[in-house]
Amino acid sequence: MERLVRLTRDGYLSLVVVGLGYVGLPTATLFADAGFNVVGVDIKPEIVNAVNKGVSPINEPGLNELVLRNVRAGRLRAAAELGEALREAGAVLVSVQTPVDEGRRPDLSFLERALRDVGVGLRRGVLVVVCSTVPPGTMLGFVKPLLESLSGLRVEDDFFLAYAPERIAPGRALKEFVENPRLVGGVGPKSTRLAAELFRAVCREVIETNAPVAEVAKLAENAFRDVNIAFANLLALICEQYGVDVWEVIRLANTHPRVSIHTPGAGVGGPCLTKDPYLLIHKFEFKHNLIKVAREVNDYMPEHVVKLVTQALKKVGKEVRGSKVAVLGTAYKADVDDPRESPAKPIIEGLIKLGARVAAYDPYCKESFGAERAETMREALRRADCVVVVTGHTVFKKLDLQELKELMGDNPIIVDGRRVVNASKAEKLGFTYYGIGLGRLGERKLGYLRS
After folding, report:
1. Which phi and psi angles does 432 have, rounded to 5°?
2. Catalytic residue positions, numbered
3. Nearest CA to 170 among 56, 295, 79?
4. Is 177 exposed, middle or buried (0-12, 13-18, 19+ CB in 10 A)?
5. Cα 251 from Cα 260, distance rounded (Å)
6. What mean pLDDT is predicted for residues 245-270?
7. Using CB atoms within 10 A of its CB, is residue 202 exposed (0-12), middle (13-18) or buried (19+)?
C-alpha cells in the first residue's frame, strides 16, 4: 500500500483509462500531462486512430493541443484492446456511458462490459476507479462483487476500488477537472486513500468520503439543479398567464439573500440533467416525488415552445402547416457543439409533425434532427415566417433585428426560447414577439418589461 502511494505521488503509476469520450479523454490527457504514462482504450477505431495521431476527436477548448503534446512526448497513446494495456497498469479508470433506457431505468450494460474486461485481467495491487455516473448502491452491490468474482481477488486485500464521479461540463472540461473539488469514495479506507492520492496529482482539491455517499452526492448535485430549473420553468408559465415578465420577477426575487432561482428556457438538455435525477430515484417509491415532477416539467418545455409557435402564427393569420420556421441552435447549451438530449430535437420533430418547413442553423453543432440544415444563419432566416431561438449561443444574442426583418417574410415572428432578443425593440420594428416567461409582449395584462 505504501509503495503504491509513493508511486502515485511521484507519477510513476501507469494508468489505463477505459472510454475516451467527453469525460475519458480529458481525464487521460490531464493525467498524461501530469507525468503519468497513460493508455486510453476505446472500442471506436476512429477515436483510437485520431488520438494516436495527436488529434482530439472531441471539440473541447485546449484539448487538441494537450493531446498532441502528450502523444508526442510518449506519455499518451490509445488502444482498441484492454488486455495488453492492463498488464502494465497500476490503476484503471473506467469512464463509459451509463444512460437510461426508454423506461427511464439505468442501463449499466456499457459499464458491465468494461468491468468484465477489467476483471478478467485484474492483477494484485491494481487500483480500479469508476468515474462513470452510477445509481446508488452500484459500487458495493454490483461493481465490487463482479470484479471479485471475475478476478478471484478481494478488495482492500488484493486490489483497490473507488468511485470518483466527474464534475465537468463541455466547453470548460479541462479547467473544471483541475479546479472543481473532486469527490473520491472508496469501498474501504485503503481504496479511498490510494484513489485520493491519484487524483491529487491533477486536481487542486480532493474530498475523501466513501463510495455510497459519493454515489448519492453526485446525483444530488444534478437533481438539485434540475429541480431549480423546473421551478424557474413553472414560474415562467405562471408569469405568462398573468402577463408579467419572469426575468424581472426572478431578478427581484434573487435580491433576497437566501433566494437563487435559475433561469427558465426552451428545455433542459445534455447527458447529465436529463438522466441523473432518474438514476437517483429509480428505486425510490414515494407518492409525491418532487424530482420526478421536476423532470416532467422540464421535459414539457419543448412542447410549450411548439405551442407558442402555433399560437404566434395563428395570431398573424398563418397556419403551421406550410409555414417556414427557422430554428436557431441545435446544441443542448450555449457555445458548445454537443447535441446530446438537446431540446431542439423535440421542438423540431414537433414542428415537422405539424407540417412546418423547418430549417435549422447552429454555428457549432452539425446536427439538425431531421430539419433542413442551413449552412448560414441568413440561409435559415430567408423568407422564414417564424424564428425560434432554442440555444443561447453568444452569436444569437447579437442578432441584427433590422437585418432579420429584411430577411424574413411578411408579419415576421420571433419565439424566444432563451430570451436573448430585446422584446421591446423587436415589437417596435414590427415583429410579433413571444418569449418564454412572457408570452406575447403585446398581450401583457400586468407589470412592465425592462427595455
Report:
1. -90, 115
2. 218, 272
3. 56
4. buried
5. 9
6. 97
7. middle
Strands 439-440 and 432-435: antiparallel
Are 130 and 143 in contact by the 8 Å Cβ rule? The answer is: yes
What is the Cα–Cα distance from 354 to 235, expressed in whole angstroms?
27
CA 391, CA 343: separation in Å to the nearest integer?
Answer: 9
DSSP-derived secondary structure letter, 76: E
This prediction has a pTM of: 0.92
Q: Is 328 helix (H, G, I), strand (E, B) or coil?
A: strand
Give the CA-trace dihedral at 254, 257, 260, 263, to 10 degrees: 20
Q: What is the pLDDT of residues 114-158, one digit of tens each?
A: 999 999 999 999 999 999 999 999 999 999 999 999 999 999 999
- 271: its cell numbers: 447527458
- Quote the CA–CA distance of 216 and 236 in Å, as a whole number: 30
All three cell numbers of 71? 502523444
Distance of CA 242 to the CA centre of its chain: 33
Residues 6+ apart with CB under 8 A from 316: 411, 413, 432
301: left (phi > 0), else alpha (psi -120 to 50), else beta? alpha
Q: What is the mean pLDDT of residues 76-104?
A: 94
Cα 313 to the center of its chain, rounded Å: 32
Quickly tell me which residue has 428545455 as its cell.
Answer: 267
Cα–Cα distance measured from residue 38 to residue 99, given in angstroms and rounded to the nearest whole number: 26
